[in-house]
Design a protein that fits this description.
The protein has about 290 residues and is α/β, with parallel strands linked by helices. The chain is built from 12 helices and 5 strands. Mean pLDDT is about 80; it is low at about 270-290.
């Protein structure tokens, strides 16, 4: 009956009733009644969802993250209602692209650090474990490389740098920024990365030793050993880059700043995984995520 009521200006009511096997005496009392409290509430939630979905980067939100964003804005509702409202309004998460990160060169003779995490991503506070990795951003001038460092507990990006070159100076610069940001609290932090030559290089290891940081590395070719870092890069590429091609390295760098400094860290609802990456890959249950 709701379909008939919504489309009565387009098609005759009698025709729609006949096609949908609804009697006119049953439809008209429905049409003249006032919306119920539930319908009014769902309409308000749907309007709020449409507003959020139209904001920059928020179009990548599915119902779980959309629900958390609504709660964050003071709109009380349950996740099932949000999913129902999104489905009725035809609103879906915009997953723009699929990608594969392939910036790791582990074929080198530099020292390899032990894997201190072993896919255990549980932490009690910030500055226990920092994760780091490199990804690429396509531009008309060639690839721009992004090195980022995330605090495993808060899931916030605490240091990042871009460069036209994928070398040790890129990862050293990103780590220096994180150390400057966190100050003396950084002493004793575990720095976990893949086995890439940049992280095994002398300049990177020298900086770790100088700042009393502890190095940890994933197993060869196992992306799940650094899953939260991979998750950030996926979010960045699907929510910010999409299929666009930046014209210059500088444009790509500005886009990274716009996403991390003005959206991801201060605004975005970030998943805090407390289970091992292995359980995620096998579909085991997670604890509900929180906004941090």
């Amino acid at each position: 009956m709701q379909f008939i009521d919504r489309h009565r200006d387009r098609w005759p009511v009698t025709v729609m009733c006949r096609v949908l096997d609804v009697t006119a005496p049953a439809f008209y009392p429905f049409a003249v009644r006032s919306p119920s409290a539930t319908e009014t509430r769902q309409a308000q939630i749907t309007k709020a969802i449409e507003t959020i979905h139209g904001e920059k980067h928020h179009d990548a939100y599915g119902s779980p993250r959309m629900h958390r964003e609504l709660i964050k804005r003071g709109i009380e509702c349950c996740r099932g209602t949000v999913a129902k409202c999104m489905k009725r309004a035809g609103i879906t998460a915009n997953r723009r692209t699929k990608f594969r990160i392939s910036t790791t060169d582990s074929n080198h003779d530099q020292p390899i650090a032990p894997n201190l995490l072993e896919q255990n991503f549980e932490t009690q506070s910030i500055n226990e474990v920092w994760l780091t990795d490199i990804t690429y951003i396509p531009t008309a001038e060639g690839f721009t490389y992004l090195a980022a460092i995330v605090d495993l507990h808060s899931r916030k990006i605490i240091g990042w740098k871009t460069s036209r070159n994928i070398d040790s100076s890129l990862v050293v610069s990103a780590l220096r920024e994180a150390i400057t940001f966190r100050g003396t609290a950084a002493i004793g932090v575990i720095i976990h990365s893949d086995r890439g030559s940049q992280y095994a290089s002398g300049p990177f290891r020298d900086l770790l030793a100088k700042e009393s940081l502890i190095q940890s590395m994933s197993r060869r070719g196992n992306c799940y050993d650094n899953a939260p870092m991979e998750s950030f890069f996926k979010s960045y590429k699907t929510e910010s880059i999409g299929d666009q091609l930046y014209a210059t390295h500088e444009q790509a760098t500005r886009a990274v700043s716009d996403y991390i400094d003005w959206f991801y860290n201060p605004t975005r609802c970030i998943h805090r995984l407390i289970t091992r990456a292995r359980s995620t890959s096998k579909g085991r249950r997670r604890r509900p995520a929180a906004c941090v």
